[in-house]
Design brief:
Length: about 290
């Protein structure tokens, strides 16, 4: 199934409960595979996005690969993206990187997912990330998959703070199957430079993540806010209409992934959550493309 700009993907973090522990670490609790399918169907989504732990949880619950593929087929869904569980390490830790990439690709192969997403490590400067990113692209190309690098202005997680830096890494790597993951949250809470978005080659944008949020943030801490307080598109203060129009203007044709990490929304029944996000997003699309 080829997905385009009108299709919606239910991002894995949207249905993952996030708890910030006293020591500053996180605990993640994934919704079941069945619940994710139910939410996606209710919201008119075309696909799911997952990380390997979502697959692991489903297998631990007794579901076989065939069970999962049947569940998707019966729901009219596909898995369109698998994100690597950990950030990309530097060149000196290649064996660690290779093992994780192989495992991620193995999960992607179960579902035929065409896209792999990665985040650069907190201790890996942009120029040192080029080599590992190029290697990931080369390995994924053997399986016919594309790779997207995400940017975020969170030094504790990544040294790729904005779209310009991410594009530099991708273009320096020089691989046709390498591209960018653009999350409106990190764009506006990061550089907030619309010119950087407008300068992106549309064919390099292989994932767009849509959500909304309060401006200013609910809490001063970027990391806490992004992991707990996102909103459905159109329910916050971000200019989501302009964002969609900008992505259209540069010629981005990938589907939109809903990554709405929210303590409020994650506790809703799956069908209610999916319907709310699907309806909200289509309302934004209608306003942006009127």
């Amino acid at each position: 199934m080829a997905l385009g700009r009108d299709d919606l993907v239910l991002g894995y973090m949207t249905m993952t409960r996030t708890e910030t522990l006293a020591d500053g670490s996180w605990r993640f609790t994934n919704a079941s595979f069945e619940a994710r399918c139910a939410a996606a169907v209710a919201g008119g989504f075309a696909a799911l996005g997952i990380v390997p732990s979502v697959y692991e949880d489903a297998r631990a619950a007794g579901l076989s690969d065939d069970d999962l593929r049947t569940m998707l087929r019966d729901a009219g869904l596909v898995v369109s993206e698998v994100e690597m569980q950990h950030q990309v390490p530097g060149p000196s830790r290649h064996d660690e990187l290779a093992a994780e990439v192989e495992y991620t690709l193995g999960v992607a192969a179960v579902f035929g997912a065409p896209r792999i997403f990665v985040v650069g490590g907190a201790d890996v400067p942009p120029d040192e990330l080029v080599g590992p990113f190029r290697w990931i692209c080369d390995r994924c190309a053997r399986d016919g998959r594309v790779v997207a690098l995400e940017f975020m202005q969170i030094p504790e997680l990544s040294q790729i703070p904005d779209a310009r830096t991410a594009l530099h890494v991708v273009e320096s790597a020089g691989r046709d199957n390498g591209g960018l993951k653009v999350d409106i949250y990190h764009q506006i809470n990061g550089s907030n430079d619309w010119g950087q978005l407008e300068a992106l080659p549309g064919d390099r944008v292989v994932c767009i993540e849509l959500n909304d949020f309060s401006i200013p943030r609910v809490g001063a801490d970027y990391l806490d806010d992004t992991m707990h307080h996102r909103l459905a598109p159109g329910e916050g203060d971000a200019d989501v209409v302009r964002f969609v129009q900008t992505m259209d203007a540069i010629g981005a044709t990938c589907p939109y992934t809903l990554e709405v990490i929210s303590d409020e929304l994650v506790v809703l029944p799956p069908a209610e959550l999916g319907e709310r996000l699907g309806t909200a997003t289509r309302r934004v699309f209608a306003a942006a493309r009127a």
